[in-house]
Inverse folding.
């Protein structure tokens, strides 16, 4: 046990006997004194830098152009969501989840509802499951499109950015027509959904599914065999399969390293086991494989959307919300005409829905990786603890390892390949 | 879905055989098995779970902590383990008595590198020290944050300091102090600083109360 760690009980950095800071053991390696290699340079990137994808700050120790050490600083966007969640009813937490991973808000909403339903023992209707699958896969596509566009820009390719953001906009329009919001969707409720899809939604989404793969094909022809793209990404930022597991990576980061683990396949939820889709797995664990995995995932999401739309058509008119009156508000018409229903409505809104004593962890496959919500309940309507297992946070923690020994310009590419969103990292 | 309707994970019996009284309690909540273990032997038990054939909980899903509303209840450190191969999950919990600080457990960084930032976050938010962690410092809050540990239940939602005090500290912070001490030590920049600046930095100039 190092004595240093215990000294840091609060916020006072310690000093050793010679008055030097006693912090991380430093890796300053001295080269030969007469050469340029003798001096290490300190470079600061961010927190306001477009290539860090948010308010991430990286402090790099360089020897020449080689990165010796990378120290990420996070927390600039810390909003205390987990603390706020302890002061809110389960349904009131839904808006907080919009703002964590703000590139895929609907998928976060779904995860929250699933975790709360697991805690309360609520089963949802089939139609609700299908709509949630649609929400998750739409989110996966828009999140991966943002990743594709911004990573392309980071590596100097501007055109695919325009293509991908155009397609993303089409999904945002659908999202807006469904939830009334482009970003803060708050789509789910415990036991059901905010709303059913509007008229014309299915047709518009079907049209998207039909035309969207064309854009992916174009990106594919632009990037996959592009020598600049290959040169910048192949063999850069390699993470082996064992290391990827050891670093608790998840999502495309894990799969690009050759570990075939997808929560949708391995711990199916929302009936994902009944959909026909493939999980792309990389081989080399480098940036290029991460790109291939994400690109293929968009094709697969498109396939799932197609199948989900077929099911939705079959379930036309089926109930959307569960009939569990513990968690679902009575219909507005009844609440306005029936005394008991009105009291029920009032109590549920004002007092919230009490969850039984216990705890539940629910993990879903989010675009960034495995998003998990962990609720601990003491029997009241507000959770004792709401923990977010943030995939970007855990994926980003391996950045120092990926950057070690890489070139400075590769750091930008590696950081982009992790696919982070700071709202979720800092929470 | 209440406790007891679903059987405990078979790992629990094997753990009891291997570690006896160090396995304090086990229960099921919403289908997930939870095992409370002796804090002193937690590292040993987690290492056993990771490496023993038939267990192979090779994936550390999450480390977090729970502070209950009842001040008598101990603080719990929670490990969510998963075996990717067997598709099994296990939740290991350690109870720490808040009345007997320091709250400290052994770091599992040597078992899972992924524990690095997760343990830093628990340290940052709950003040639990992880013995043997190579770089245990605050992660989401800044280094000199002095209000306490935000996710503890005795920490009010708006913070321990008044809004006026918080504002005063922000205004008093030196915006030029961009680098932490360990970063300045890189390339020996720390040695080249003027003496008074070294002293101020050592006191934690960024946001420190004056």
């Amino acid at each position: 046990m190092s004595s240093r760690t215990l000294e840091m009980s609060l916020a006072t950095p310690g000093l050793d006997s010679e008055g030097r800071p006693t912090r991380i053991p430093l890796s300053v390696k001295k080269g030969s004194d007469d050469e340029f290699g003798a001096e290490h340079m300190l470079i600061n990137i961010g927190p306001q830098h477009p290539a860090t994808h948010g308010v991430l700050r990286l402090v790099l120790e360089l020897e020449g152009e080689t990165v010796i050490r990378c120290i990420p600083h996070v927390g600039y966007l810390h909003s205390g969501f987990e603390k706020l969640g302890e002061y809110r009813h389960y349904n009131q937490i839904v808006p907080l989840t919009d703002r964590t991973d703000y590139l895929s808000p609907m998928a976060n909403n779904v995860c929250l509802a699933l975790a709360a339903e697991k805690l309360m023992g609520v089963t949802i209707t089939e139609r609700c499951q299908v709509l949630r699958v649609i929400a998750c896969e739409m989110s996966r596509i828009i999140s991966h499109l943002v990743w594709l566009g911004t990573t392309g820009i980071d590596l100097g390719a501007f055109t695919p950015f325009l293509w991908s953001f155009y397609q993303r906009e089409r999904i945002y329009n659908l999202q807006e027509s469904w939830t009334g919001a482009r970003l803060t969707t708050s789509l789910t409720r415990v036991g059901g959904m905010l709303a059913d899809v509007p008229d014309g939604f299915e047709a518009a989404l079907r049209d998207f599914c039909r035309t969207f793969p064309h854009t992916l094909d174009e990106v594919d022809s632009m990037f996959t065999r592009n020598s600049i793209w290959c040169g910048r990404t192949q063999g850069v930022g390699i993470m082996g399969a064992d290391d990827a597991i050891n670093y608790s990576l998840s999502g495309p980061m894990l799969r690009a390293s050759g570990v075939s683990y997808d929560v949708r396949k391995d711990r199916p939820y929302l009936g994902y086991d009944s959909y026909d889709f493939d999980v792309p797995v990389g081989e080399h664990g480098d940036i290029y494989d991460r790109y291939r995995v994400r690109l293929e995932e968009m094709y697969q999401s498109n396939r799932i959307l197609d199948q989900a739309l077929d099911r939705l058509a079959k379930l036309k008119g089926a109930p959307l919300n569960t009939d569990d009156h513990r968690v679902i508000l009575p219909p507005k018409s009844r609440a306005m005409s029936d005394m008991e229903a009105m009291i029920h409505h009032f109590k549920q809104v004002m007092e919230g829905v009490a969850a039984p004593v216990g705890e539940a962890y629910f993990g879903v496959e989010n675009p960034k990786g495995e998003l998990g919500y962990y609720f601990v309940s003491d029997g009241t309507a507000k959770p004792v603890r709401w923990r977010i297992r943030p995939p970007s946070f855990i994926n980003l923690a391996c950045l120092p390892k990926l950057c070690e020994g890489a070139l400075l310009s590769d750091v930008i590419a590696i950081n982009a390949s992790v696919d982070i969103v700071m709202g979720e990292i800092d929470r | 879905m209440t406790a007891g309707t679903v059987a405990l994970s078979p790992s629990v019996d094997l753990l009891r055989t291997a570690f006896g009284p160090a396995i304090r309690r086990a229960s099921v909540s919403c289908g997930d098995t939870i095992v409370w273990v002796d804090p002193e032997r937690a590292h040993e038990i987690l290492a056993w779970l990771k490496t023993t054939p038939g267990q192979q909980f090779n994936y550390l899903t999450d480390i977090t902590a729970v502070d209950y509303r009842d001040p008598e209840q101990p603080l719990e450190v929670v490990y969510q383990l998963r075996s990717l191969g067997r598709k099994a999950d296990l939740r290991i919990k350690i109870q720490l008595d808040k009345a007997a600080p320091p709250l400290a457990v052994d770091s599992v960084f040597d078992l899972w590198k992924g524990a690095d930032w997760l343990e830093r976050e628990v340290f940052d938010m709950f003040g639990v020290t992880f013995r043997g962690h190579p770089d245990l410092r605050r992660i989401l809050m800044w280094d000199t944050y002095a209000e306490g540990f935000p996710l503890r239940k005795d920490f009010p939602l708006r913070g321990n300091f008044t809004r006026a005090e918080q504002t005063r500290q922000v205004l008093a912070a030196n915006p030029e102090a961009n680098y932490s001490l360990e970063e300045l030590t890189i390339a020996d920049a720390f040695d080249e600083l003027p003496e008074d600046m070294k002293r101020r930095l050592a006191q934690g100039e960024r946001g420190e109360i004056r």
In short: Residues 78 and 93 of chain B are 5 Å apart (CA to CA). Residues 115-126 of chain B form the longest helix (12 residues).
